[in-house]
Write a structure and sequence with these properties.
The chain is α+β, with helices and mostly antiparallel strands. It has 2 domains: 4-96 and 245-250, 3-Layer(aba) Sandwich (Aminopeptidase), CATH 3.40.630; 99-242, Gcn5-related N-acetyltransferase (GNAT) (Aminopeptidase, 3-Layer(aba) Sandwich). It is 24% helix and 30% strand. The chain is built from 6 helices and 12 strands. The chain has helices at 4-21, 53-66, 82-86, 124-129, 195-206, 231-236, and strands at residues 25-29, 32-37, 42-46, 70-76, 89-91, 95-100, 112-115, 153-159, 165-173, 179-186, 222-226, 240-250. Strands 1, 2, 3, 4, 5, 6, 7, 8, 9, 10, 11 and 12 form a 12-stranded mixed β-sheet that branches. Helix 5 (195-206) links the parallel strand 10 (179-186) and strand 11 (222-226). The protein is globular, with a radius of gyration of 18 Å. InterPro entries: Acyl_CoA_acyltransferase, GNAT_dom. This is N-acetyltransferase domain-containing protein. Residues 154-203 form the N-acetyltransferase domain.
Length: 255
């Protein structure tokens, strides 16, 4: 059964995998778990239960040393955030957790969904982050064998028949068999044409073992952290609201 706790764990594993795959690191400071993602110059605090200044101060000092341009915190909606606010964090757009099997068929868009990390057009941080799809195959990383962040990740790309890229997304295999959807995006001028739904179907199929046909009686469960602008999309595709969380940003951060 998917819970908010398992959703939080899945998102933590994604940020940890992304950090390691792009040359960053994960570390802890007095009860706080952090992911440093260098290609975005982003330092992320992952669901602290009782954040204290003793854990925040050394990590923020490390963020300055590393050259972070942005510091974020993902927080359970029921967790105390007084220390985070005292450190300068404030709420960003609220996150809502959605989970469930897809309810809309794929045949609403005529373009192509391609799986894999071969995207010649990708540059900069976008290109570097494609390395996360290879992390689960690596035999030597800073993550110990069996670390949940090493679970399989797939990337899906949406192209028109003319070859134009119009959308993308990632999915990471969850500990309970569900797929956590990340960074799903469709170009503004191409929205409401079924591309996002097609991407969800492509990501859902990406984990299927071709030697073991899927069981039609057990549909794949997807899990997503939605922003206010994407919540209706996930609901329309059949994912049910699990609950809400908090995404905070250190507004006073100066670099």
């Amino acid at each position: 059964m998917t819970t908010i706790a398992s959703a939080q764990e899945a998102l933590s594993h994604w940020h940890q995998a992304l950090a390691v795959a792009t040359g960053g690191k994960i570390f802890t400071t007095h009860g706080c778990s952090w992911a440093w993602q260098p290609v975005r110059k982003r330092l992320i605090l992952l669901f602290p239960e009782h954040p204290e200044q003793a854990g925040l101060r050394p990590a923020l000092a490390e963020g300055h040393r590393l050259g972070a341009r942005r510091v974020e915190a993902w927080v359970n909606s029921g967790a105390h955030a007084d220390e985070l606010k005292a450190a300068g964090f404030s709420d960003n757009a609220q996150v809502s957790w959605h989970a469930g099997p897809l309810a809309i068929p794929m045949d609403r868009w005529n373009g192509k969904i391609r799986l894999g990390n071969n995207v010649p057009e990708a540059t900069g941080a976008d290109a570097a982050e494609l390395n996360v799809t290879n992390l689960w195959r690596e035999t030597s990383t800073q993550l110990s064998s069996g670390h949940p962040a090493l679970r399989r990740v797939e990337h899906a790309l949406a192209r028109t028949d003319e070859g134009e890229i119009v959308g993308r997304g990632f999915a990471q295999q969850g500990l309970n068999g569900q797929l956590m959807v990340h960074a799903l995006a469709v170009g503004k001028e191409h929205r409401r044409h079924g591309i996002g739904t097609a991407l969800l179907h492509g990501l859902s199929r990406s984990m299927i073992n071709p030697l073991s046909p899927p069981d039609d009686e057990v549909p794949q469960e997807l899990l997503a952290a939605a922003t206010p602008s994407s919540a209706d999309f996930f609901s329309a595709n059949g994912l049910k609201l699990l609950g809400r969380g908090r995404h905070m940003v250190l507004r006073s951060w100066n670099q």
